[in-house]
Amino acid sequence: MRRVSGVGGMPAGVIVLKLVVTPLLIAVATLVARRWGHGVGGWLSGFPLTSAPVSVFLALEQGPDFAAGAAVGTLLGLAAMGICCLVYGLVARHAGWMASTVAGLGTFVICLAALSRFTPSLLVAFLVVCAALAVAALALPRSSGKPTAVVAPWWDLLARMVVAAAVVLTLTTCATYLGPTLSGLFSPIPVFLFLLAIFAQRAEGAEASIRVLRGGIMGSFAFAVFFLIVGIGLGRLGIGVTYALASVGAIGLNGAVLSVGRGLFR
To answer: Of the four listed, 32, 67, 174, 187, which is most buried by Cβ atoms within 10 Å?
Structure first.
C-alpha cells in the first residue's frame, strides 16, 4: 500500500496528531480557566501547551539534537514572553485591549529580534529566563477587586484551538528552514495567555487581564524547568524518558506554586 503523505511529505497521521494534540490541551485548559478563574487560567497557561508539542514533534521529525538546540531558543523566547506580558499589563492600566495587545506583541517581536543574535548555553538561557520572569512578576501592577463570572462567546474556545493548531503546524513544517534556534524562539508566542488576557480585559477590564498575566508569569517558571530538562536529557536519556521527566518536573513545580495560594495571582 502507498503511504499517504500530507504537508511537506509528512505522513497524514502525523498531521492529524498535530491538529489534535495541542487544540485538545488548549480546550482542557480553557475549560479549567472558566471553572476556577482568571488567575488559575493564567497559571495553567504557564505550562508549555504549545511549545511542548512543538518540541516533541521536532525531536521525532528532526532528531533529538535539533530539539535540544531548539530548547535553548525556546528558553530565550520565554524570556521575551515574560517581558511582553509585563508591557501588556502596564499598558492595560491606561489603554484598551487592542493597544495593550499591540504593545505586548510588538515587545515580543523586538525581544525576539534582539535575542536571536545570541547563542548562549542552555544554563545561561535558563538563568536569563528566570531573571526576566522575576522582573516581570515584581514589576507587574498589583490587581485589585474581586473577579466576576463572565460568559465567554461561543467562538472563544474554537478560536483558541484553531490558532494553537496553526502555530504547531507552521513551526514544525518550517523547522528545516528556520533551524533549531528560530524554531525554539517562536514557539513560546503567548497565544493562549494573550487570548485569555484579551477576553478578560474586554469583559472585566485591566484588573482581570493583570490577574491572567500574573498567573501566566508565575506558571512559566515550570515552563522553563521543562525545557531545561529537555535540553539536558535529549541525546542522553532518549525522547520518551526525557519528556516524561520534563513533564513531571513542570507539573511538580507548578503544583507547588499553586499550593502557595491564589494570592500570588492577584
So the answer is: 67
